[in-house]
């Protein structure tokens, strides 16, 4: 009997800190995504082991003395599983990092470095995120921005969220001027999601990002800023997933008397049957001044081998039709992904 009581007491002491941490402490999370790929750009044809934005992070919320208000935080870092070096001898690359406050009925305010509302307005459309078929291959505006402050409303009617972010320039020289105002750029979105249907409308104003029309014309990114509109939508209907994005981007001001403009379209779809998911994606970006086109096509399959693990294979082709020449990147790969949290 004494041994049983002693064992129970030790078990209680060991379990108590775990319960406290689960209730108040941070959550450690991440994923390992590794693929073995053949990459061919017409000049180089080689096999590579890639880490595909594998990551580790910590996030949580703290109760405050202010009623109904919590302090929130997140620190997320990219890790290179394939070689352990993210560049320049560094182990980690910064991803979404912020601190702030949240109130159930007033909304959330955060500040730090994180994805803009415009970028996050892609929602679940991209079926090949962080792989060779990622929509960023042909789509501008996929930015994670430093020195950004964002306010988000609570969910209105349980389905709609408004996001507004401002970005001070902090004295940087951009597009021939010094950006030192309280807010030199804005990014915003309205997001709808009821679980079955989702959609978003997003707008960027004078955000530092790229326009392929200007890039292909030989205009450096430090010489222009971008205004852009993104409309996305899709549906999750039983075993099917459908998604689409339309985007129009243009230089905020004329560059040497010229305005540069991109129009982009993305279509994606997936079909799931038990553990197997088949997916496809197509995209087109048309440029105004250069009359060039970018196209993206990707096909793939995921197979779940556990609640948070999968193996996958995919093929992707990104092509640039530039005047009379053509540039082409082709990817073929197999890999796995494990997600974790504690």
UniProtKB/TrEMBL annotation:
<dbReference type="GO" id="GO:0015288">
    <property type="term" value="F:porin activity"/>
</dbReference>
<dbReference type="Pfam" id="PF13609">
    <property type="entry name" value="Porin_4"/>
</dbReference>
<feature type="domain" description="Porin">
    <location>
        <begin position="13"/>
        <end position="322"/>
    </location>
</feature>
<keyword id="KW-0472">Membrane</keyword>
<dbReference type="GO" id="GO:0009279">
    <property type="term" value="C:cell outer membrane"/>
</dbReference>
<keyword id="KW-0813">Transport</keyword>
<dbReference type="InterPro" id="IPR033900">
    <property type="entry name" value="Gram_neg_porin_domain"/>
</dbReference>
<keyword id="KW-0626">Porin</keyword>
<dbReference type="GO" id="GO:0046930">
    <property type="term" value="C:pore complex"/>
</dbReference>
<dbReference type="GO" id="GO:0006811">
    <property type="term" value="P:monoatomic ion transport"/>
</dbReference>
<dbReference type="InterPro" id="IPR023614">
    <property type="entry name" value="Porin_dom_sf"/>
</dbReference>
<protein>
    <submittedName>
        <fullName>Outer membrane protein (Porin)</fullName>
    </submittedName>
</protein>
<keyword id="KW-0732">Signal</keyword>
<keyword id="KW-0406">Ion transport</keyword>
<dbReference type="InterPro" id="IPR050298">
    <property type="entry name" value="Gram-neg_bact_OMP"/>
</dbReference>
<keyword id="KW-0998">Cell outer membrane</keyword>
<feature type="signal peptide">
    <location>
        <begin position="1"/>
        <end position="22"/>
    </location>
</feature>
<keyword id="KW-1134">Transmembrane beta strand</keyword>
<keyword id="KW-0812">Transmembrane</keyword>
<comment type="subunit">
    <text>Homotrimer.</text>
</comment>
């Amino acid at each position: 009997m004494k041994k049983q009581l002693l064992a129970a007491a030790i078990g209680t002491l060991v379990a108590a800190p775990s319960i406290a941490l689960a209730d108040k402490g941070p959550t450690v999370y991440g994923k390992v995504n590794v693929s073995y790929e053949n990459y061919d750009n017409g000049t180089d044809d080689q096999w590579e082991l890639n880490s595909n934005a594998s990551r580790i992070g910590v996030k949580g919320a703290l109760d405050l003395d202010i009623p109904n208000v919590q302090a929130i935080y997140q620190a997320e870092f990219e890790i290179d599983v394939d070689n352990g070096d993210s560049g320049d001898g560094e182990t980690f690359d910064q991803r979404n990092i912020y601190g702030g406050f949240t109130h159930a009925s007033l909304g959330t305010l955060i500040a730090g470095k994180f994805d803009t509302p415009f970028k996050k307005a892609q929602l679940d459309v991209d079926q090949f995120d962080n792989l060779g078929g990622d929509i960023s291959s042909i789509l501008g505006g996929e930015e994670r921005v430093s020195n950004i402050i964002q306010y988000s409303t609570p969910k209105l009617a349980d389905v709609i969220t408004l996001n507004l972010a401002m970005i001070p320039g902090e004295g940087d020289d951009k597009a021939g001027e010094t950006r030192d105002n309280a807010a030199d750029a804005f990014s915003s979105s309205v997001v709808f999601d009821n679980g079955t249907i989702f959609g978003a409308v997003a707008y960027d104003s004078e955000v530092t990002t790229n326009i392929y029309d200007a890039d292909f014309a030989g205009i450096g990114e430090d010489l222009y800023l971008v205004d852009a509109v993104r409309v996305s939508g899709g549906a999750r209907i039983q075993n099917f997933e459908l998604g689409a994005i339309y985007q129009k981007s243009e230089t905020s001001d004329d560059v040497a008397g010229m305005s540069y403009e991109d129009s982009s379209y993305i279509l994606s779809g997936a079909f799931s049957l038990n553990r197997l998911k088949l997916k496809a994606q197509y995209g087109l970006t048309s440029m105004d001044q250069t009359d060039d086109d970018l196209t993206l096509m990707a096909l793939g399959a995921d197979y779940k081998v556990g609640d948070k693990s999968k193996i996958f294979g995919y093929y992707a082709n990104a092509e640039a039709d530039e005047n009379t020449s053509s540039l082409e990147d082709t990817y073929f790969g197999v890999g796995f992904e494990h997600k974790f949290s504690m």
